[in-house]
Recover the amino acids of this structure.
């Protein structure tokens, strides 16, 4: 199994109160979109810290700024104020250092490339030699259960399988941080449950820091070490709920009474921020 | 091939390595196109002869198709057989058209990339290109002859000019259609602009560029012929057209032969582009280029 190097690359990596280094940190993060002279506050004074190897889900109604936050961490947006840190570095440095991988809601595969070539794409861009990138991509495809499908094309796969390729692709650059923006949002619930289980197994093996955005309460509780609830207009963090379910999370976790308690707690928090059932 | 099945709920079971159902092979797809093309040709022939019959048009205006074709075997005043002479001139025109198509394509792709990449350049350049496209090329071709002479440069310049526009627009449109997520993905790899262009943007634009190229291929033939029309040219389909114009009242079949030759040339170029598209799309599952 490939190891992920999680050793901090900078000396002054900030640490959590418990002394563990932080994978993600946001301090007083603000972001305002200006469209036709009208200002929309997407993020207002958001603080967040995720220890390395932590799995944090962000949940909240549409327009609460959860995607904005992810895009700031991924260096796709520059915050209006405040700072974001990925492994102690600013997002730009982290991106240039190829420290994070991304998984989108759409599988976002290149339709003219085979499954294997799609999975190799980041390594190809990084200039990794062909035998090495092929070996890594094959290992990651194996990890997501796609051995035997390497020469298929995306159009020949189901939605769930396409999303597995997208995950393998993100993993192939062996990132220490994974940004997942509603990766299972377009899948049916059965496929989603199954991929949740697989994601847990992958996370256990590679232990990346994960920032996971979702609309599903059950998914957030099942996957995360922490669930962050956000409220819209302006986007703020209202609560952070520690998910103390035992590890490893398996199919049995979903039968745990504690799981139901946490699900209903997150639901109540969400209902209060959005003023009604989500 | 190993047959792996992913069992489990919600996951479609797909056997790896099996041929993909519902996607015919390349040979079958090409054969189908050939059948359709032959069918359409037969319809065109029937229309020509049908219209001639119904409107009772005389042989001087509308010769029988077999008369036109048989003219290819007749001798010219210089004791040359008309068919080979036509073929020789077609090749001259083909050379100009191909050169113009190549340079117009390169310039067009480059401009399309610039237009798609830069709003400023795009917004400034596109209206200019559209405006330039409305200039009647026949009107300015004598001026071009004065600039560039009667040699092949003039022909190629005109063919380039006509080729450039469809390729530019197709490239720009195709690149603008690239999904935002794909660009974000490459951004997260810290990919260079060149990598983004070659790995994502141009492959995404390829099907549209091929459509633009088909239009351009036909234009390149027209452009070269127009370039051969002005006084001074020695060979090419344009020269043959000028000669046939002069003798039309005596021998109308010559002009139709040249027209047919131009059609065959244009059609061959378009077919060549299609074939290129097939080859480029060879690794794509559904031959998306077509």
């Amino acid at each position: 199994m490939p190891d992920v190097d999680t050793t901090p690359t900078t000396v002054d990596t900030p640490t959590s109160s418990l002394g563990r280094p932080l994978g993600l940190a946001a301090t007083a993060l603000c972001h305002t979109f200006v469209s036709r002279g009208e200002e929309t506050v997407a993020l207002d004074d958001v603080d967040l810290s995720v220890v390395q190897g932590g799995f944090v889900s962000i949940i909240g109604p549409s327009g609460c700024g959860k995607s904005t936050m992810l895009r700031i961490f991924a260096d796709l947006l520059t915050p209006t104020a405040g700072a974001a840190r990925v492994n102690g570095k600013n997002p730009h440095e982290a991106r240039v250092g190829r420290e994070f991988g991304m998984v989108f809601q759409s599988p976002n595969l290149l339709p003219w490339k085979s499954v294997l070539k799609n999975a190799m794409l980041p390594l190809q861009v990084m200039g990794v030699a062909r035998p090495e990138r092929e070996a890594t991509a094959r290992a990651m495809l194996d990890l997501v259960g796609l051995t035997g499908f390497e020469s298929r094309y995306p159009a020949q796969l189901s939605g769930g399988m396409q999303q597995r390729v997208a995950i393998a692709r993100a993993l192939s650059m062996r990132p220490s941080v994974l940004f997942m923006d509603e990766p299972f949002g377009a899948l049916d619930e059965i496929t989603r449950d199954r991929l949740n289980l697989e994601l847990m197994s992958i996370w256990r093996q590679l232990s990346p820091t994960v920032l996971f955005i979702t609309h599903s309460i059950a998914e957030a509780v099942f996957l995360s070490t922490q669930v962050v609830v956000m409220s819209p207009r302006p986007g703020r963090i209202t609560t952070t709920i520690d998910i103390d379910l035992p590890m490893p999370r398996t199919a049995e976790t979903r039968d745990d009474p504690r799981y139901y308690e946490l699900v209903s707690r997150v639901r109540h928090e969400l209902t209060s921020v959005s003023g009604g059932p989500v | 091939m190993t047959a792996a099945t992913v069992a489990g709920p919600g996951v479609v079971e797909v056997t790896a390595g099996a041929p993909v159902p519902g996607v015919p092979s390349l040979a079958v797809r090409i054969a189908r196109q050939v059948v359709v093309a032959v069918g359409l040709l037969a319809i065109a022939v029937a229309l020509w002869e049908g219209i001639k019959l119904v409107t009772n048009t005389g042989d001087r205006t509308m010769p029988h198709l077999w008369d036109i074709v048989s003219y290819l075997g007749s001798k010219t005043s210089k004791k040359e057989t008309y068919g080979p002479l036509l073929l020789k001139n077609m090749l001259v025109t083909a050379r100009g058209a191909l050169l113009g198509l190549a340079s117009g394509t390169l310039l067009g792709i480059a401009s399309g990339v610039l237009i798609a990449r830069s709003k400023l350049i795009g917004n400034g350049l596109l209206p200019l290109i559209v405006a330039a496209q409305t200039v009647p090329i026949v009107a300015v071709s004598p001026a071009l002859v004065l600039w560039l002479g009667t040699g092949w440069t003039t022909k190629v310049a005109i063919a380039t000019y006509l080729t450039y526009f469809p390729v530019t627009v197709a490239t720009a449109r195709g690149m603008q259609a690239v999904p935002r997520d794909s660009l974000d993905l490459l951004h997260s790899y810290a990919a260079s602009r060149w990598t983004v262009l070659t790995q994502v943007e141009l492959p995404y634009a390829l099907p549209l560029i091929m459509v633009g190229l088909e239009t351009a291929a036909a234009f390149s033939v027209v452009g070269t012929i127009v370039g051969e029309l002005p006084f001074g040219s020695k060979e090419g389909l344009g020269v043959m057209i000028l000669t046939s114009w002069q003798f039309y009242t005596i021998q109308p079949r010559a002009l139709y032969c040249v027209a047919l030759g131009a059609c065959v040339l244009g059609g061959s170029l378009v077919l060549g582009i299609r074939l290129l598209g097939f080859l480029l799309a060879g690794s794509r599952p559904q031959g998306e280029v077509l």
Q: What stands out?
A: Residues 1-11 of chain A have pLDDT under 50 and may be disordered. Helices of chain A lie at 66-73, 91-96, 115-126, 130-143, 159-172, 189-206, 217-223, 257-274.
